[in-house]
Amino acid sequence: MILNDIASIRTGLVTARKKASDYENNVIEYKLINLKCIAEAGYLDLLNTEPYYSVERLKADYLTRMGDILIRLSAPYTSVMITSEEWCNYLVPSHFTIIRVDKRKAAPEYVFWFLKRDTTRQKIMQNSSGSSAFGTISSGFFTNLKIRDIPLQKQKIVGELLMLSEKEQELLYSLAAEKAKYNKFLVNQIYDTFKRGN
What we know:
Layout: H1 3-6, E1 7-11, E2 28-32, E3 50-54, E4 69-72, E5 79-81, E6 96-101, H2 108-116, H3 118-126, H4 140-143, H5 152-195
Antiparallel strand pairs: 1-6, 2-3, 4-5, 4-6
Helix pairs in contact: 2-5
């Protein structure tokens, strides 16, 4: 099956077009996802979002919803799926493509798995423009992307297994980050004790 037949595909908002200037009144505030918000492990880090002030109310098409798949359009082309209500209603800029799968035609989790496969990532890199480190891909590339068609029930099984794995990776990443903070604090405490000569 072709991705364009089972999903809507669009680029995020070109934020410069709707951005309010400092002196304008009646602006509308959004929380903007940026490149730092997408962890390479494939989940959102919302601590890095930025406030964005718009001159008008933006189309809901540019705001994250449950089941959306975001793909970074520059290297390393990380994909993330919106799987939590707390990840919804964030503004997506033009650095990303937004893929919304029609659930009657395919399982979003299966499509997400397919987009994360090494073979798909290789195709993305082969079709990117620029150097391998700074290359970009057009969101149009995804419209004709072929995805293996298997029965919907089997798609859901593959998708569920992927989402369990993704959750485990996110928890391990968070645990490692907290452990690193603790270890840094501990070493600094010991150093301070030695420095004081105790």
